[in-house]
Structures are given as C-alpha cells and as structure tokens.
Specification:
Length: 321
C-alpha cells in the first residue's frame, strides 16, 4: 500500500463540498439581514450615542465576518492547511472591514462643512414626512402616500443622507401645512451636537449597504453550494462540475442583479428620479453609491429581514457590548 504524505490526508473535502459550511453561510446571511432590520427600527428616531456606537460596532463586526467567509472559501481551495486559511481569512476580513467603515464615516464627518451638518439636523426631523409620501421637491412628488412599510422604513432611514447638498427650501409638504425653514441653528449648538447629527445621517446608509452586500453575497454562495450538492446527489456530476467552477460569479450575479433591478414607489417617483438622485450623485458619489443600493435592497429583502430579526433572533437589540 503506497504511503501518503500527511498533507494529502489532512482533510477529505473542501469546505464548499460540505453541507455544514453552506448552512453556516445561510445562517450568517440571515443574521446580517436581521441587523439591517434592527437598524431600520432604530433610525425611527435620532440615535443616542450608545445606539450609534452599537450600530457602528455590529456593522463593522458583521460585515467583517461576511468578507472573511468569502475569503475562507477561496483560500480553502488554495491552501493545504485549513487552519491557515481560517486564520488568514478572518484576520484580513475583520481588520479590513473594521477600519474601512470607520475611515469612511470619520472622513465624511471631518470634511463636511458646518452648514451641511446644520442642515442634517433639519433633514433628520423631516424624514417622517418623506416616508409618509407627503414631500415634494421643486414641485415634483417624492414617493406617494400609502407606500409599503418596507419602502417607508427605508425612506425614513435614507432620505436625510440622500438630501445632503440640497436646500431645505427645495422641499414642500403642502398637504400638511409644513413650511421649510432656513437651516440655521442657535449659536449654542456645539460642534459635538452637529457631528452627532451628521453621523446619524450618514452611518445608516453606509452600514446598511455593506451589511446587505455581504449578506446577500454569502446567502447566494450558501444557496449555490446547496444546489451543487443536490445535483451531485441526484446523479448530475457534469452539471455539478460546471456549477462548482462558476458558483460564486453565477449566484452573485443573479442575487445582486435582481436586487439592483428592484423598483418601488419611491425610486420611481419624479421627485427622486429628476431631483434627489441626480443631486446625491453630484454631491457625494461615495455616499450616493450606498444610498442608491440601499433604496433597492432594503425594500426588496425587508420581509426576510423582518422574519429573521423577530423570529430567528427573537428581536436581538444589537447593542454595543
């Protein structure tokens, strides 16, 4: 009997051939979507510092875990020792996402002019009107009354960030008697208050965008692995072999592509298409990228996020540890 080197027998199958790994990917994705739903709940009001810290902490940790799982599958196919793939993937994934999200938010806060930070206070307070479909921009309707709850929650969270760079006088809510006021605050408004208001405005779209992106990528990967194993078990090795080579690209393209094409009453409204969307891309393309994705992804996956948060995780608060 030929002698086999220890390297050749250290494991029997790659991670992508094991059912438990596919289950872990799907469970992680559901936790990620649960976090998104909790964020939408919290942003009904201006966040306190502990709530804001909790969102930033969990957002970085969960997104880092998502990137780590993507790296782990790739490294597992290329390294002989699995423990090395685990250590490298989690070290890189967690460090990159922890610092990336913090750097983006800190950079935007530090470089925002004081007038824009003052404007964010008023935009946070007018988000409820936008979610109710009662606002218009320069005479064009922004959404409409009676939008689905999934759309209302997303708009309430994302509208303040999307409207940065506009003038408060561009918005009208004639049906309510609301009149926009110049974005001026008393002299007693501290820099800390303004920074906190601005963080409340920009943190949710960034954290939501990273969370949903990695969550959906891993959900697609987990479901794809399940299909691969089912095809192999049913006696279709040829199809399974093709899917194995193109698994991540195919499942990611389908999942992310369908999400990016999702439409709802808000993004199809003339106020968004003609004014709000062009403004946010012109004002800050980095922030606009997150907002544009979130406006589609959050309503598209809201039902699953709601179920995962309240049924699977029993309403976990995602508070800072």
């Amino acid at each position: 009997m030929p002698h086999l080197a220890p390297d050749a027998t250290h494991r029997t199958a790659s991670l992508q051939d094991q059912a438990w790994f596919a289950a872990v990917l799907v469970m992680y994705a559901l936790v990620e979507l649960s976090f998104n739903h909790r964020m939408l709940e919290l942003t009904d009001v201006v966040l306190s510092n502990p709530d804001l810290d909790g969102l930033q902490f969990w957002g970085r940790v969960i997104a880092g875990f998502g990137l780590s799982m993507l790296l782990l599958r790739w490294l597992d196919l290329r390294m002989q020792q699995r423990w090395q793939a685990v250590v490298i993937s989690f070290a890189v994934g967690m460090l990159v996402m922890w610092h990336f999200q913090k750097m983006v938010i800190d950079y935007l806060v530090d470089h925002a002019p004081a007038a824009e930070k003052k404007l964010s206070v008023y935009l946070l307070n007018s988000a409820d009107l936008g979610a109710a479909g009662l606002l218009s921009i320069k005479g064009d309707a922004l959404g409409k009354p009676g939008m689905a709850p999934s759309v209302r929650e997303a708009v309430k969270t994302l509208l303040p960030a999307a409207a940065l760079g506009m003038s408060l006088s561009d918005f009208e809510a004639p049906a309510t008697g609301w009149v926009s006021q110049p974005a001026a605050l008393p002299m007693s408004a501290s820099d800390e208050m303004l920074d906190n208001a601005y963080r409340n405005t920009i943190t949710p779209p960034i954290a939501l965008g990273l969370s949903s992106f990695f969550g959906l990528l891993n959900l697609a990967q987990g479901m794809g692995l399940g299909i691969l194993m089912a095809l192999r078990k049913q006696g279709h090795p040829r199809w399974a072999g093709w899917l194995r080579r193109h698994l991540l690209a195919l499942t990611a393209a389908v999942t992310l592509g369908l999400t990016a094409m999702h439409h709802n009453e808000f993004i199809d409204s003339p106020g968004y298409a003609l004014h709000l969307s062009p403004n946010m891309w012109q004002h800050n393309a980095v922030l606009a990228l997150f907002i544009a994705w979130d406006m589609r992804a959050e309503p598209a996956w809201y039902a699953l996020s709601d179920w995962a948060h309240h049924q699977l995780l029993r309403g976990f608060l995602f508070a800072k540890l």
